[in-house]
Amino acid sequence: MNYSKQRELVLKTLQENMIHPTADQVYELMRKEMPKISLATVYRNLNQLAEKGIIHRISGLNGSVHFDHNIEKHYHFICTKCNKVYDVPYRVAPDLAQKLAEYTGLEAESYDVAFRGICNHCKNLN
Amino acid sequence: MNYSKQRELVLKTLQENMIHPTADQVYELMRKEMPKISLATVYRNLNQLAEKGIIHRISGLNGSVHFDHNIEKHYHFICTKCNKVYDVPYRVAPDLAQKLAEYTGLEAESYDVAFRGICNHCKNLN
DNA sequence: TTCAAAATTAGTAATGATTACTATTATTGA
DNA sequence: TCAATAATAGTAATCATTACTAATTTTGAA
């Protein structure tokens, strides 16, 4: 994987925006700093970075794939009102892969937990 | 929601095919029995049935949305080789919504757990 | 440093999944 | 029985993502 300005900025954008953005959101955020960036380049780099395990892709939230610079084990909660994505700590459901193996004999390479509901902020907006 | 032959067959097809089919797969399965069915009708009915809680939509597996006639709480394992979807019993991760509330104060209306890995069948194919 | 091979890019076309639209047909309840 | 409502088939449109291509950039060996 050769160096490129574009890939560096994709990563930096993801690290500086804790909103679990989609590829399109990363694209829009990056355009401020690099107006000529191509959407296809953003997709390609996000996929490459995920492939190398430098970032994580989160699917199953809502339609499109989201990306996460945080590669520590953790889960996600998506608000069905505002669509914001919140981190959920690992201790909410530890050792799921191990439990899966115990109960079913299946070996998971990875897994996601996606909670859906209304976040506290949206609840308070009566 | 009025009765329709098409909706009845969508549900029947889902119940008789335990493969967690996508909308397109339901469409193909139904065409044997109802060749004039429209893909848009299949999508509309699957969404309506899911809306009413009669079936479940499973997202986050692989690209497209899958549907499940089983609305008991349970999880899924998708094989990254053959793309088959397996059911994972609820006891692998019980009370996740409650744990979530305890640890974070967030209230989940629903949640999915999607495991990914190579299934035992594909493992045995050397 | 120089330069050619390999990687990356911007821009755009193509694909795949899903939804929107529309004119026609089926269902329903008074 | 009949008009209001819902549902349908067929197709166009949309959205997310990937594929393609000619031009540019990176890289490491000479």
Question: Which descriptors would you attach to this protein?
Answer:
homodimer; 126 residues; alpha+beta; Arc Repressor Mutant, subunit A; Dna Ligase, domain 1; 2 domains; 3-stranded mixed sheet; two-stranded antiparallel ribbon; 5 helices; 5 strands; DNA-binding
Short précis:
Two copies of one chain form a homodimer. With 126 residues, chain A is α+β, with helices and mostly antiparallel strands.
Description:
- Two copies of one chain form a homodimer.
- Chain A is an alpha+beta fold and 126 residues long.
- The first copy, chain A, folds into two domains: 5-68, Winged helix-like DNA-binding domain superfamily/Winged helix DNA-binding domain (Arc Repressor Mutant, subunit A, Orthogonal Bundle), CATH 1.10.10.10; 74-125, 2-Layer Sandwich (Dna Ligase, domain 1).
- Helix content of chain A is 38%, strand content 26%.
- Chain A has helices spanning 5-16, 23-31, 39-51, 96-104, 120-124, and strands spanning 56-62, 64-68, 74-79, 85-89, 108-117.
- In chain A, a hairpin with a 5-residue loop joins β3 and β4 (85-89).
- Chain A binds chain B through residues 59-62, 77, 80, 86, 88-89, 91-93, 96-97, 99-100, 103-120, and chain B through 59-61, 77, 80, 86, 88-89, 91-93, 96-97, 99-100, 103-120.
- β5 (108-117) of chain A pairs antiparallel with β5 of chain B, so a sheet runs across the interface.
- The structure holds a DNA duplex (30 and 30 nucleotides).
